[in-house]
Amino acid sequence: MKSSAVRRLSTVLKLGQSPGTSLPETSSLANFLSASKEKYLSDVRATPSKGAEWTVVMGNEAGDLDSVASSIAYAWVQSEIHKKPSIPLIQIDRDDLNLRAENMYALQLAGINDPQQQLLCITDLEGVKPFPSTTFALVDHNRLGALFSSENPNANVVAVVDHHEDEHLYADSADPRKIAPAGSCASHVASLYPREAEIPRELATLLLSAIIIDTNGLVPGGKALQVDHSAALYLIPHSTLTDSISSSTLSSLPQRNPETLLGIPQIKNLSDILSAKKTDVSHLGAWDLLRRDYKEYTYTLNWHPSTPTIKAGLATVPVKLRSWGSDGKLEAEAQRWMEHQQLSVLGVLTSFRDARKFGKNGKGKHRREMAWLVRDGTDAQTLQLDDIASRLWKGLEANEELQVKIHKKMNLSKIPPTARARTYKQKNANATRKATAPLLKNIMELMG
Ligand SMILES: [Mn+2]
């Protein structure tokens, strides 16, 4: 009793010395993040029930720039404009923040120079069970993860802003509940930013960076939709890019055809840097490549007599399979990752540019491949390994959107007898994990 009172007192005094007892109105984005993290952690450590006073804002577990930027921006709006204490939680391990060089770069542009210290990561709450907060806002995904809902009966999702397939949850509790197509979820978050309030230039820059990376620089005919263009037009004049964009360009922005934004040299430059950082993963081996852009799903096999539940993972990798996975490397590291995560199914989805074939834009032609592994996991002891595998091959090969063909130059022969594997070339290079994840769910769960 006494020690916790002392701890509370020292917390108060410590916060009292810094300008952040209540979150300062004039603080930069980095100060806001550091102060919120410190206050949240001291709240839940000293008095776990205080966690209920906070809204935890989360992006998805892949931890890409879209998720990071959207969660930071949404938490800022809630805390600083609506005065509801909110904290962005990055759903990856602190040490894994480095795996995405493009995130580190964009965060630095936003004045967040030490994200490991300034951002609340899943590592900061390791071992805290049940999760100390009950109020959640979801951005860039629309289903609350099991880590936050298990043994947490009061868990409540109060907001959803997303651009993935709608799982139709939280219709009664979430407001806003905006789930609609967009190149980037950050565009939805920007569209919801109260126009009468000021947006810090660091925050505008962070959101703009996410939109640029998700839409290949807002390239015409690409992934950018109208909501992305409108968001970019709103953010550019508020961003730090205005230091170098000419005033005539800035004043002509409202009249500009949004399809031509890539014609602004500063936008093109930022886009080139971010995409170079994103695709330069030469320093990463198979193990890190499987983890760096990874999402996990739980499926109930309704077609199976005992309707068991299994876990599946989808790793997106920006390098072709043969560059990093040959000679049994993919088999070995995928097995290790599947055991580590207790997965029954792992899909490795590559997306890369073919240096030998040029596409329309003069860059290498965009290609995608898939490697799939099915393993006899503990959750699936009673299952027929071959039942799952043959269902998977059949479902993938029949799908008209993906258009897969067996990948003859990359077969995974070095798998143990307790596993099955198949690799494909994906003819439709535009179908991302956003298309593959719902397909996998259908293949695994639907009867028939
Ligand atoms: Mn996204």
UniProtKB/TrEMBL annotation:
GO terms for cellular component: cytoplasm. SUPFAM superfamilies: DHH phosphoesterases (SSF64182). The keyword Metal-binding applies. Its cofactor is Mn(2+). Residues 271-444 form the DHHA2 domain. Keywords: Hydrolase, Manganese, Metal-binding. The lineage of its organism: Eukaryota, Fungi, Dikarya, Basidiomycota, Agaricomycotina. This is DHHA2 domain-containing protein. GO terms for molecular function: exopolyphosphatase activity; metal ion binding.
